[in-house]
Amino acid sequence: MNTLNKDIAGWGRYPVQRCELVRPERHAELWSEAPSLLARGQGRSYGDAALNEGGRVVLTERVNRFLAFDREQGIVRAEAGVTLAELLALTVPRGWFPLVTPGTRHVSLGGCVAADVHGKNHHHDGAFSSSVRELELITAGGRRLRCSAQENAAAFQATVGGMGLTGIIGEVELQLQPIESGYIRARHQAAAHLEELFRLLQESDGDARYSVAWVDLMSRGAALGRGVVMNGDHAARDELSGGRRLTPLRLPPARVRNIPCNMPGWLLNGLSIRAFNAQYYRREGSRSGSFLLDYDTFFYPLDTLANWNRLYGRRGFVQYQCVVPTATALEAMRQLLQRLADSGHPAFLGVLKRMGPAGAAYLSFPMEGYTLAMDLPMKGAATLALLDAFDSVVLQHGGRVYLAKDARLAPASFRAMYPQFAEWQRVRRELDPHGVFSSSLSRRLGMEEQA
Question: What does residue 84 show for φ and ψ, rounded to 5 degrees?
């Protein structure tokens, strides 16, 4: 395979680093000898998790073949480069949907496993790994290992959420859930402040399979943390009417607009974001009763805007996502939002979700509690200082930061947030004793040093 040295970044476009890229065409070519190696799917992690500065990055996007699909049981096996978009195109018309999906279709199955992604239904169905029946792990030297919760369980739990540092994920076998239509029965509720937002999320826990809250990060004072709770369930065929009822599993193509170039850095400022948020709060919060949305609109609203990360300009942005335990989650979120308000830093997108119990994987992000994600334009030292302040709040409340979104967490904070790191490191060294698999994130966090 040919190699190419190129500057690449994650979805946040910060940081940008030079890596040696290889793009295999076939599954058999995924493994190649190199001092430092890391697999990369669609590059949708936000920071440096899919970067390997000065080392080799294996692009898996062309290793994307479906291997088997049991239409009766809803079990699919595919190469890890298959994206959720490709999976949905195959399975939805046949009445099957992923058990867990993140907020974009443009992620690979391997990436979903490596980050153990979660969705709007973690409080009911857990993280992505809950639907993984088996995976193939290509370890150092090119050995192929079948892993599941029952077979080579330690390797499985180290790979799930392991950010690609145990080896290259070659194949993934998933259990899907049956659906009668490609539509979601949705309901919106406006909340005037953070306390009400929490109350509505708690009340929706038993009422809806999916729930998420949009948060107005620019709200202040008595309106701090105002937002809109969005609940949803898969719609049955008899809930549809007209043409939808005749072809419930076939949706019209989604209309996608493109951001063709980098926007000016001043475009997303406090004034423009505040105006947009006020309009969005009025529009979405005023929707009464239940209504139908196609699954694309409900699960993947930002996918209708291709290259939306260009809105932040050349300097990019950072996403800060944390989770804190239920007992003090309200106070922790209030402190985070107040620190953001006091800083005067603009922040565009805010999402709050309720999460269920943690899984068995050593470095999986979710824990029982609440998770908040915030997108902030990158403004250099001021932004990094604000995120450090956020870390202190999260640590105080026993929470953690999501590694798939991180670009700057300190090693000491990482180890305090992930108490099973030592066990993960032990398994990783058994799989990769010479430390071939490495990333910019792992070196920054000291994950290759003795715990």
Answer: -60, -35
Give the CA angle between residues 230, 43, 161 to the nearest 5°. Answer: 70
Token digits of residue 71: 């239409």
Token readout for 234 is: 């898969």
The mean pLDDT of 388-413, rounded to a whole number, is 98
In order of 122, 236, 380, the CA distances from 292 in angstroms are 22, 11, 42
Number of domains in the chain: 1
Q: Quickly tell me which residue has 């700057």 as its tokens.
A: 408
Residue recorded with tokens 């080579």: 152
Residue at 2 is within a domain: no
Q: Which helix (H) or strand (E) holds 85?
A: helix 84-91
Q: Is the C-alpha dihedral spanning 110, 114, 120, 126 positive or negative?
A: positive
Report if pTM > 0.85: yes
Residue 301 one-letter amino acid: P
Cβ contact 425:345 at 8 Å: no
Distance CA 423, CA 238 (A): 50
Asked whether residue 340 is domain-assigned, the answer is yes
Work out the burial of residue 445: count CB atoms within 10 Å of its CB; fewer than 13 is exposed, 13-18 middle, 19 or more buried.
Answer: buried
Give the pLDDT confidence of 4-37 residue by residue, as tens digits: 999 999 999 999 999 999 999 999 999 999 999 9
Domain holding 267, by residue range, is 183-408
Task: Give the C-alpha separation, 27 to 67, whole Å.
Answer: 12
Residue 275: DSSP 8-state: H
Look at residue 337 and tell me if it is in a domain. yes
Q: Is residue 384 part of a domain?
A: yes
Closest Cα partner for 347 from 371, 321, 375? 375
Give residue 289's Cα distance to chain centre: 29
CATH of the domain at 260: 3.30.70.2520
